[in-house]
Specification:
By secondary structure, the chain is mainly beta. The chain has helices at 2-14, 16-19; strands at residues 82-87, 110-118, 121-129, 136-142, 183-184, 191-197, 209-213, 230-235. The protein has one domain (42-62, 80-238): Immunoglobulin-like, CATH 2.60.40.200.
Length: 238
């Protein structure tokens, strides 16, 4: 699982198409990945034209952005991906990343969301910091942008939408049809989580935000996808 996700990341990051999505200052030539690993015909992610934060401040200067990933790179930045750096705060002053529960998602807590979607696969990486130590949070990609309260973000993004809407049916509300990013923080309130899907956003639909929830996501029929209250939201470029 982990290995295949990294292989995907290496292949996608090595793609010339996605390299074009990254900083113009970064030369895509020096890739350690063999040419065979790059998808021959990657389709353009539908979200390519969306506004996105291309800041690479998360990476140390000089860090290779297109090199092959190894097992030692599980916590490394995805490089030339759609990248959003969110700093949580009060909605009025910070509408792109509001916290609704400052006890569990303190103002100043951060989330960086990176998305590589192409060629029929999607890899999402989220890194969080400034949260409560050793605590489990639920998290998913949601269909709408963040708003004044947690409900504004709407339901979970589903590749195949449940025709009944607001799904708690495990056939639709599952981590393959949705993007689940549950995590447990370490003693410093930091975590890195990955999610991989066997589809991309080439049908023109994509999530607009990531919600942090109070509980691990449920999977049973009738409650699948529920994860407790909505603690915070971050608009993210998918
Ligand atoms: Cu959610």
């Amino acid at each position: 699982m982990k290995r295949s996700a990294l292989t995907l990341a290496a292949a996608l990051v090595a793609s010339p198409l996605l390299a074009a999505c990254g900083s113009a200052a970064t030369a895509p030539a020096a890739s350690g990945t063999s040419a065979a690993a790059a998808p021959a015909t990657a389709s353009a992610p539908s979200t390519m034209a969306m506004g996105m934060d291309m800041s690479s401040g998360h990476m140390a200067p000089g860090t290779a952005m297109h090199g092959a990933m190894t097992d030692g790179d599980t916590k490394t930045d995805l490089g030339a991906a759609h990248k959003t750096d969110a700093v949580f705060g009060d909605f009025a002053a910070n509408p792109a990343a509001p916290t609704y529960d400052t006890a569990k998602v303190p103002a100043g807590a951060k989330a960086t969301v990176q998305v590589v979607a192409a060629g029929g696969s999607t890899l999402v990486r989220m890194e969080v910091s400034g949260l409560l130590p050793s605590t489990v949070y639920g998290s998913h990609a949601h269909v709408n942008a963040c708003g004044a309260n947690g409900d504004a973000a709407g339901g979970h993004f589903e590749h195949t939408p449940d025709p009944k809407g607001a799904s708690t049916d495990p056939q639709f509300a599952n981590p393959t049809n949705e993007i689940w990013l549950d995590f447990q923080t370490d003693a410093q309130g930091h975590a890195v989580v990955w999610s991989k899907q066997p589809w991309d956003f080439s049908d023109g639909r994509a999530p607009k935000s990531v919600i942090l929830h109070a509980m691990k996501t449920e999977t049973a029929a009738g409650s699948a996808g529920k994860a407790g209250s909505r603690l915070a939201c971050a608009n993210a470029a998918f």
